[in-house]
Write a structure and sequence with these properties.
about 250 residues; mainly beta; 8-stranded antiparallel β-barrel; Porin; 5-stranded antiparallel β-sheet
Length: about 250
């Protein structure tokens, strides 16, 4: 498999999402630059429930082997079924991760996004340092010795924001679990930094201090006084003799 470019974007128009808190009757739609998938309740493979952190839709095309679309939502948008994980029971920000493939051997594409109720720019803190209790999830595509593996990414991340200087510092310790099944293994420890322009609620930045992983991040603040944070990231790696593309999201709260 030939890996394409991974990147982040702060645009409010590149990715469009139609969601609902009435999962049994709604149609969920995600569109990136004209490519679109639609999902209904019959496509749910993981139902929203307090015991799960994500609910998942998946469709498959019976006419084309290996053609699919999968949409994974943070489980905090269905009021009666919000996750019991206190770190993810967020009220102002959520995420949706869209994974799809054209065929068994065809192109695979992954889109990550955060959405919610942005902090009004005039309500952003201007002083002080704030740690955000955060969670990281994502996907990793690895090509090593001609073998392609798609893995779910987890692990830990620390997020610290200095509102006086506008710097956002992140430290990742990531692991990976093959989507096809298998053991969870370490992927690596990385750092990144973003910068908040003056009087803005959005920021962008890049991975730092690594010779084997480079990439970008974009993020924003949500709720009153930047109560919650959401970040999307994308990176290219050459780790352990392989070639990787890493994409994911971070959500957190004060």
């Amino acid at each position: 498999m030939t890996l394409g470019v991974s990147a982040t974007d702060t645009s409010f128009t590149r990715v469009r999402l139609a969601t609902s808190n009435a999962i049994t009757t709604a149609t969920y739609v995600i569109n990136e630059a004209g490519e679109e998938s639609r999902f209904v309740n019959a496509n749910v493979t993981v139902q929203p429930a307090p015991s799960v952190t994500e609910y998942v839709f998946r469709t498959t095309d019976t006419a084309t082997a290996g053609k699919f679309a999968q949409l994974e939502f943070l489980n905090n948008t269905i009021p009666s079924q919000v996750t019991s994980n206190a770190n993810l029971a967020l009220t102002n920000v959520s995420y949706a991760n869209w994974w799809r493939g054209d065929s068994t051997t065809g192109a695979k594409r992954i889109t990550t996004s955060v959405f919610g109720y942005p902090t009004v720019a005039t309500d952003m803190p201007a002083t002080g340092t704030q740690a955000y209790t955060s969670t990281v999830v994502g996907k990793l595509v690895d090509v090593t010795a001609g073998v392609t593996t798609v893995s779910r990414v987890g692990g830990t991340v620390t997020v610290s924001v200095n509102f006086s200087t506008g710097l956002v510092d992140l430290a990742f310790n990531l692991n990976r679990t093959p989507e096809a099944g298998g053991a969870t293994t370490a992927f690596g420890a990385f750092t990144a930094q973003g910068a908040i322009p003056t009087k803005q609620n959005l920021f962008s930045g890049s991975f730092t201090g690594s010779t084997t992983l480079s990439g970008t991040l974009t993020g924003g603040f949500f709720g009153s006084q930047g109560k919650e944070i959401g970040i999307a990231f994308a990176a290219n790696g050459t780790i352990g003799g392989g070639n990787q593309r890493l994409v994911g999201v971070i959500v957190g709260k004060k």
